[in-house]
Design goal:
The complex is a heterodimer of chains A (228) and B (240). Chain A has nine helices and no strands. In chain A, 83% of the residues lie in helices and 0% in strands. Chain B is of the alpha/beta class and 240 residues long. Classes of the chains: A mainly alpha (228), B alpha/beta (240).
Chain lengths: 228, 240
């Protein structure tokens, strides 16, 4: 047992690599949260634009473009997107920024579909009631439809959040030291494979399980307020 | 107040309204009766453009609502609508249901809107429900809230789309009572209904709509006691 602790000490502390691991964890969290925000905002924008395009002819071509965007993003592996963004589109940006943008854009395509189905799940009579009171379509969407859609969307967004967190583990393909890359670097430099790899595996597990628990609690909260 | 000229509505191959001409005057309480599928609800929904007509014109207080340049949102503020399925906002309290539109559309401040909402709720006997959510209300209470939600905007006309059809029988009376009081207070009302008793007692004009056309129009006495049209007679013999 103490030999094992010695080994851990040797791998992380003596070498100072614990700093690298912490930096990796920090970057993973930054990329995940940043991408989540971009994904939700962009996804909502796409879903709402598509919803409005149904009876605003001017938006029809835009909706077509968005359809292509969603299909393209969903059909391209995220690693390929990451490489394209890092080596072609955003060559002068920092790795973490490229990561946030790439995973955000990738996530937005999935979010758009989730949010659209959430909007569609709200009774059309709600929009009509808002309109009949004189609200514009945008006002009724913001005040009446979207707040109700959130209830349908939230569980799916939670799943997407967890998936996103795990997906960012490929960020190391470009010059980003995320948690996975950090662990792998430590393995490479110390010739200790077990401890760095188990450490990152357990860290991911703790984060995903924790997230799932928190989201389940939020859902229960929402369900409760729904009953009055 | 509302003038309809040659109103037509077509859903794909189905022509639901085949040219309706009618004028609704201030203070009118007009009931629209007819068999299901006759186009009653579609006609009513065209009046505030929830359904876009495929032909004809609708004038409201002098403005043509079918004209693309007309600001529909502004006109809808003056046309209250009550739906068969209530369509209360489930994520808001009764109070917020009543105040959200007037406040958002800058018709009044939050305080004014709340004072007004409370008055309206008192009028329909629901002041103790102001801070509950719609899912705690019975169907009849929901529909009464829906009526005062529309009234909170201070409309010039109220449109009712089968307001009692989704209610349990014992709750129909309380909603009709509110509508009767509204009519007696002089509100202009257009009511699509299957409640023949209400149409006879409360309205001053009754329209019989069938297959997308107005087949008969007159006072309740004319329509119910001396129907001229054959189809109206057969309709009345089934429902009365």
């Amino acid at each position: 047992m103490s030999a094992w602790f010695d080994k851990i000490y040797e791998t992380f502390i003596e070498t100072g690599y614990y700093n690298l691991m912490i930096e990796g964890l920090y970057n993973t969290i930054k990329i995940t949260l940043g991408a989540l925000v971009i994904g939700v905002l962009l996804g909502t924008l796409i879903a709402v634009t598509k919803y409005f395009s149904e009876d605003v002819p001017v938006l029809k071509p835009l909706a077509k473009v968005l359809d292509i965007y969603v299909t393209a993003i969903r059909g391209i592996p995220v690693v390929v997107l990451l490489l394209v963004f890092y080596y072609v589109i955003m060559t002068s940006s920092e790795g973490v920024v490229v990561g946030v943008i790439t995973f955000g854009i990738n996530s937005s395509a999935y979010m758009a579909e989730l949010i659209r189905s959430g909007i569609n799940a709200v009774d059309p009579g709600q929009m009509e009631a808002g309109r009949s009171l004189g609200m514009s379509k945008a006002q009724a969407m913001a005040k009446i439809v979207l707040p109700q859609a959130v209830k349908y969307i939230l569980p799916a967004i939670g799943n997407e959040f967890v998936a996103l967190l795990k997906e960012t583990s490929v960020a190391g393909y470009v010059a980003v030291v995320d948690l996975t890359r950090a662990g792998n670097l430590v393995r490479n430099n110390t010739f200790d494979a077990i401890n760095p790899l188990f450490t990152i595996a357990i860290t991911y597990l703790i984060m995903t399980v924790g997230l799932t628990r928190i989201l389940a609690a939020v859902e229960r909260r929402l369900a409760k307020s729904d009953k009055g | 107040m509302i003038k309809v000229e040659g109103l037509k509505k077509r859903f794909q191959d189905l022509e639901v309204l085949k040219g309706i001409d009618i004028e609704i005057n201030k203070g009118d309480v007009m009931c629209i009766i007819g068999p299901s599928g006759s186009g009653k609800s579609t006609f009513l929904r065209c009046l505030n453009m929830l359904e876009k007509p495929t032909g004809g014109k609708i004038y409201f207080e002098g403005d043509d609502l079918t004209d693309k340049k007309t600001d529909l949102n502004l006109h809808r503020q003056k046309m209250g609508m009550v739906f068969q399925q209530f369509n209360l906002f489930p994520h808001m309290t009764v109070m917020d249901n009543l105040t959200c539109a007037p406040v958002m559309l800058k018709k009044m401040t939050k305080e004014e809107a709340e004072t007004r909402a409370m008055e309206l709720l008192k009028r329909v006997g629901l002041e103790d429900k102001a801070y509950t959510y719609p899912n705690k209300l019975s169907g009849g209470q929901k529909q009464r809230v829906a009526i005062v939600r529309a009234l909170a905007m201070g409309p010039d006309v109220m449109l009712f789309d089968e307001p009692t059809s989704a209610l349990d029988p014992e709750m129909v009376g309380e909603v009709l009572e509110v509508m009767r009081e509204l009519a007696e207070a002089g509100m202009t009302m257009v009511v699509v209904t299957h409640e023949m008793g209400f149409a006879r007692e409360v309205s001053n004009r009754v329209i019989f709509l069938d297959e997308g056309m107005i087949l008969e129009e007159g006072t309740p006495e004319q329509v119910f006691d001396h129907p001229q049209n054959e189809r109206l007679r057969s309709f009345l013999s089934k429902v009365l």
